[in-house]
Amino acid sequence: MALTQGDKTEIEKMIRKEIKDFMGSSTIKKFEDTLIDRIRKEIKSGNMRGDINELIVKIFTEFYYLMWQKRTQWVSNLKNVK
User: Fold this and answer.
1) How many domains does the chain have?
2) Which range of residues forms the domain containing residue 60?
3) In this predicted model, which residue has the larger pLDDT, 14 or 31?
4) What are the DSSP calls for the chain, one per residue?
């Protein structure tokens, strides 16, 4: 069942209203700017620093674990480089 153009317009209006109510912005650009400003303030205040560090450690741990598991695919290519 496909959405009609009227349905899409109605959904778009509802989303814009929710964004406006939540962030006080009427356009996507204003919403992005407000969201980035709030994140920037949280980082500067130090509230998110521990969370960010924890996230980075988890991401790098997963990355290195994955590279270790797939080492047979890339190690031979590195050995051939001279």
Assistant:
1) 1
2) 5-80
3) 14
4) -PPPHHHHHHHHHHHHHHHHHHHS-SSHHHHHHHHHHHHHHHHHHTSSHHHHHHHHHHHHHHHHHHHHHTHHHHHHHHHH--
pTM of the model: 0.37
Q: What is the CA radius of gyration of the chain?
A: 22
CB 34 within 8 A of CB 25: yes
Q: Which two tokens stand for residue 82?
A: 């001279």
d(CA 47, CA 2): 44
Contact 15, 23 (CB under 8 A): no
